[in-house]
Amino acid sequence: MENLSIVIFIEVAMTLFLIWVIYYLRSDLSNLKLKTFSVSVFFLAMMASMFNGITYYLVTPSSFINTVLAVNVSMILMTVAIVYLLVIAAKGEFTGISRSISGTLSFLLVWNEISMAVLLRVIAFGTTDQNSFVDSLSFFSLSITSILFLLPMLTEMVVFIFLQLRSGIDKEIAISILLMQIGDPVMFGNSRFISILLIAYSVLMIVSIVYFFRAVYRNRKIFDQSDGKRSKERNIAIDFVFLFLLTSLSFIGPLILPGNFGLSYLVFAISMIIAMSLYFNIIMGMYQNYNTRKLQEKTVTG
């Protein structure tokens, strides 16, 4: 690994930045203001697009044109975010947290995590032998499954799961996701530890699914529906089951593609991204019914 001090600095700074943004959003998530949402979107888009621009600059041959293109990559993505905010402000229909707003915030957070992971691998290991699309996919897979990606993600998860989330099915499923991520078997790449980590990961997967079913059983009464609609608890549970199945199936990859280590774990890398998305959806209130509650409160007060 090269440029260790730079890698550590970016990891620490970016982790603190994302923790601050999430805390800033969650400080009044049930009564989210347009200002809070706009500031968060602006900074998240700015950081991610900056990382994308730097990554493009580092992986392409040094030239004036590539430098201009790197700047344009950052500017174009940032412009899209600004236009998005202007459209919302012009319509004047911002009503606070909703599934679409939560989805937007989760997407931006995931985008930041992925952008940081790829940039850190470029800085730490360079981009040698990336001569084809398959090589790029392999590099992307190794970026997502690396310890460089895992540590910031686990830090953020621990902070908000145990310090912010209230007891309930949301927190218990978030803990199940955390358990699945702790033992990433390829966090050190194709190392001598992979066999031990695979065993540890298998055990953690079992612990995770047992913990999940225990949580579902403990909260079984709230899964009963009287209006024929799926509850938010049922939605979270279904999403977690899908994640668990995808993660389990991802280990077929090394059997099918034993010759390309990075590519063989691509599906596993995708499952890690989905796990992170599900976690951010929970943290950002994707499964909450804030708008319904607001309408009820207006009806009562009116």
List the helices and strands and how they pair.
Elements: H1 4-26, H2 34-59, H3 64-91, H4 99-125, H5 133-145, H6 147-163, H7 169-182, H8 194-218, H9 232-249, H10 253-256, H11 261-264, H12 266-283, H13 290-301
Helix pairs in contact: 1-2, 1-4, 1-6, 2-3, 2-4, 4-5, 4-6, 4-12, 5-12, 6-7, 7-8, 7-9, 7-12, 9-12
DSSP strand tally: 0
| H/E topology pattern | HHHHHHHHHHHHH
Fraction of residues in helices? over 70%
Number of domains: 1
Determine the N-to-C terminus distance: 63 Å
Give the overall shape, derived from the CA principal axes.
globular
Percent range for β-strand residues = under 5%
Enumerate the spans where pLDDT stays under 50 for 5 or more consecutive residues. Answer: 291-302
- Largest pleated sheet: none
The gyration radius over C-alpha positions equals: 21 Å
User: How many H/I helices?
Assistant: 13
Mean pLDDT: 85
Broad structural category = mainly alpha
Walk me through this protein's architecture.
- The protein is an all-alpha fold.
- The protein has one domain.
- It is 76% helix and 0% strand.
- The protein has 13 helices and no strands.
- It is globular.
- The model is unreliable at 291-302 (pLDDT under 50).
Short description:
With 302 residues, the chain is an all-alpha fold.
